[in-house]
């Protein structure tokens, strides 16, 4: 399908922070995607976890597999809506580059450790990775991505950080957080695809881990509907196949719902171009009924999976690891690699270094520095 007028068009990109000649065989957004895939931060996502830690099983999702699932969902929906699939893929693959080891536990610990030094936000850290921390090119720090890719990566941003970015980059990617505007449709789509992927694979991983059961999930209307629909067609189905088919049907319907609801919103607001999209309300959306159903599922997962005693115990030990690492690095620069230790903003350098760690490297470093092994 050809791109719609309200899509981001690579040949009309707002450009890069450092001018570069165009690539002869790739669009600007394809080039961004390729830079993400070849980055060190992207490779490290394979050993950064979602809910379950790497040592707890080989089949649970990691940040890498999650990012791939978001990209797949985003491209499928974006193709039907006439959006730029390469930009969608770029944002999806990059959106978790700033995530710490040990999932959200790491984000919370680093934010607390950095309270006196500007705090820590994983979305802002993803931008920091692509703007500064990747060091692959001789002419600039970072990956020098297009405005549109960077805009999509910065999903959330506290006002104080938006003001700092705006001061460095007037009218740039942080302006919308100060004006109440929206990002591109491609970025909006990635945000929603992220939610859909999270809910689906956390059901899968939760049941696979034994922390959730299908009987529990029957209390969630969205899951119950597709579980019963599956059993209506395959009454003898059970176990993994029943779980997978239920999730597949639920995912498919959410995709169709987003397409239908977004098409209706686009028809109602009729944005003439991407600038009109930024002035409009969010246009990539669930229907009200699906929004409610998805919210109920998220509440269930929060109460029964993310707050499960086993997950909380793992989280507690992960928090100890990262607090100990931050304290050790802050106290003694000699424990850091030379290029990190020599940076002027020492607390931020410590946070950058820890945020970039994989789960298993953080555990190795903790054992080296403390002599303790908190995970077997």
TrEMBL record:
Keywords: Hydrolase. Pfam families: HD, HD_assoc. Residues 63-199 form the HD domain. It comes from the Bacteria. SMART domains: HDc. CDD domains: HDc. InterPro entries: dGTPase, dGTPase-like, dNTPase_2, HD/PDEase_dom, HD_domain, PHydrolase_assoc_dom. HAMAP family: dGTPase_type2. Belongs to the dGTPase family. Type 2 subfamily. This is Deoxyguanosinetriphosphate triphosphohydrolase-like protein. It comes from Roseateles subflavus.
């Amino acid at each position: 399908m050809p791109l719609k007028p309200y899509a981001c068009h690579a040949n009309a990109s707002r450009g890069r922070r450092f001018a570069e000649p165009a690539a002869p065989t790739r669009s600007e957004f394809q080039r961004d995607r390729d830079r993400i895939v070849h980055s060190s931060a992207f490779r490290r996502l394979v050993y950064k976890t979602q809910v379950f830690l790497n040592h707890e099983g080989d089949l649970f999702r990691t940040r890498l597999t999650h990012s791939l699932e978001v990209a797949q969902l985003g491209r499928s929906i974006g193709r039907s809506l006439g959006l730029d699939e390469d930009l969608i893929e770029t944002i999806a693959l990059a959106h978790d580059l700033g995530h710490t080891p040990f999932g959200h536990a790491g984000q919370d610990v680093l934010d607390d450790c950095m309270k006196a030094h500007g705090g820590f936000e994983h979305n802002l850290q993803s931008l920091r990775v692509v703007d500064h921390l990747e060091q692959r090119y001789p002419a600039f720090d970072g990956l020098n991505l297009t405005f549109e890719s960077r805009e999509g990566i910065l999903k959330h941003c506290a006002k104080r950080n938006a003001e700092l970015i705006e001061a460095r980059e007037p009218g740039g990617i942080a302006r919308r957080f100060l004006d109440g505007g929206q990002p591109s449709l491609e970025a909006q789509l990635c945000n929603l695809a992220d939610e859909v992927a999270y809910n689906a694979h956390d059901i899968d991983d939760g049941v696979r881990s034994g922390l959730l059961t299908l009987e529990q999930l029957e209390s969630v209307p969205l899951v119950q509907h597709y579980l019963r629909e599956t059993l209506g067609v395959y009454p003898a189905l059970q176990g993994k196949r029943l779980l997978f088919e239920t999730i597949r049907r639920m995912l498919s319907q959410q995709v169709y719902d987003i397409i239908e609801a977004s098409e209706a919103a686009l028809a109602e607001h009729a944005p003439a171009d991407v600038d009109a999209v930024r002035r409009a309300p969010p246009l990539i959306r669930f229907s009200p009924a699906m929004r409610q159903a998805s919210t109920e599922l998220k509440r269930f997962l929060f109460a029964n999976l993310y707050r499960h005693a086993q997950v909380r115990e793992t989280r507690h030990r992960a928090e100890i690891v990262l607090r100990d690492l931050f304290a050790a690095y802050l106290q003694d620069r000699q424990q850091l690699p030379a290029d990190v230790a020599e940076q002027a903003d020492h607390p931020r350098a410590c946070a950058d270094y820890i945020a970039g760690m994989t789960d298993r490297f953080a555990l190795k470093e903790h054992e080296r520095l403390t002599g303790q092994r908190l995970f077997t």
